[in-house]
Amino acid sequence: AQKITQTQPGMFVQEKEAVTLDCTYDTSDQSYGLFWYKQPSSGEMIFLIYQGSYDEQNATEGRYSLNFQKARKSANLVISASQLGDSAMYFCAMREAGTASKLTFGTGTRLQVTL
Amino acid sequence: GAVVSQHPSRVICKSGTSVKIECRSLDFQATTMFWYRQFPKQSLMLMATSNEGSKATYEQGVEKDKFLINHASLTLSTLTVTSAHPEDSSFYICSARASDRYSNQPQHFGDGTRLSIL
User: Fold this and answer.
1) Mind giving me the DSSP string for B26-66?
2) Closest alpha carbon within chain A to B57
3) Following CA atoms A71, A72, A74, A79 in sequence, which dihedral angle do they give, to the nearest 10 degrees?
4) Do A11 and A112 meet the contact criterion of CB atoms below 8 Å apart?
5) Chain A residues near residue B93 by CB distance under 8 angstroms
6) What's the CA gap between B26 and B22, in Å, rounded?
7) pLDDT tens digits along B97-115
8) Which of A109, A113, B70, B83 is such that its CA lies 20 to 30 A from the CA of B21?
9) 3-state secondary structure of A84
10) CA-to-CA distance for B111 and B92, rounded, in angstroms?
């Protein structure tokens, strides 16, 4: 089974609108961390937001928020007030306890922000 | 924020050449660094975990003799693609995580190296 599933290969959103990028995960660990990274066409990986499995509140970082539903094993990224510069690939990743900090990445979602 | 520098950003070379890629953590110490490979329009695939002062841990299917990893200090890891062939052409990207016990520290990535073997 895939550890990280991103079911949306591509998404479009209009500038200034909000968009939700889906991510579900599979783990039997109680302690784990979930990350979202942005990869522009230039290739670098930019860390956006982190959610720990024991965090009771949803993580927020500026225009990014994480809709964490532990029972459903989902960690969706919400981008509010989209900007043209948000157009990029977005990857969800998970770090499980005891894996020497290794990250497992999903297949990514390409977000295109339109005028 | 934490900065990871990766060099070179792009390499074009002939088949049979060995290529060395450097990954440096500029403002933090990293006992562990990671090397990933990314094919076009695909996700990042972990190749190996680089441990300072000890041997790297390779993922299944990754050839140790082909992809040599050295982590000589707390701020530098190198990946050498030995006797590179066209099928080794790819985007290679490293990451590092600050050496502390807090699990919420993210991995910080270098800008990647685009390797093209002719």
Assistant:
1) SSS--SEEEEEEE-TTS-EEEEEEEETTS--EEPTT--TTT
2) A100
3) -100
4) yes
5) 43, 45
6) 12
7) 876 655 567 889 999 999 9
8) A109
9) helix
10) 9
